[in-house]
Amino acid sequence: MNNTESNSRCWHILMIIFALFAMGLGCERKQVSPISGKKSIEKTSPKPLKGPLDLREYLGSGQDALKRREQIEDFRRKFAKGFKQEFPNVTSPRFVDADAVLLPDTADVLGISTNGVSRAYLVVGMWEMHHHVLHDNIAGQPITITYCDINDCAYAYQSQGILPEDFKVGGWDGRDLLLLIQGKYYAHPKAPLPAYPIKRTTWGRWKTQHPNTKIYLGFFSEK
Known about the structure:
Blueprint: H1 3-28, E1 53-54, H2 56-60, H3 63-78, E2 83-87, E3 95-97, E4 101-102, E5 108-114, E6 117-122, E7 133-138, E8 141-148, E9 153-158, E10 167-172, E11 177-181, E12 184-187, E13 199-202, H4 203-209, E14 214-216
Parallel strand pairs: 1-4, 6-14
Antiparallel strand pairs: 2-10, 3-14, 5-6, 5-13, 7-8, 8-9, 10-11, 11-12
């Protein structure tokens, strides 16, 4: 190999090393906006919203309730003969403190208070099928709350000894919500379990009587 070829190869090697070094520096440089005088936009994770969840405008308008009544009448017509279909239930209900949400005082809630523990369940939050059966544990007592939006009725049962997966919505019999309990179907008012005291009232009254209550928002907590 002559001197000219050797010098040429050395020059090429140096150029490659320099290019790699420059690329490495480029990875460390911050991007600069092509518009002078403006900072580059960096991707950051969204900041959590501060303050309580405000549902007053949505629940206070009444528009959703009117739409719901129309949906209920349509449901009755379509499924007058009933149907059987399993729906998932709520096994790990998420509760928030009373001051973590803003609701109209007139909003309907279901309330349970026992052994110094108070829970409220927002009725409109249980409108969807997969929120109709909710398994809770209040002060060590397994309690199942059921709600039917078609008939607008609710019950609470002592569910000791029944696994949550064995107690769920099983469909509609043409007049009532069907509950599927340990493989057998029962109309909503006829579940063969001991009833547990539950009160239907307004959020304003319940919160006044039980200021330390927590509340279940149902599908609103999913939004």
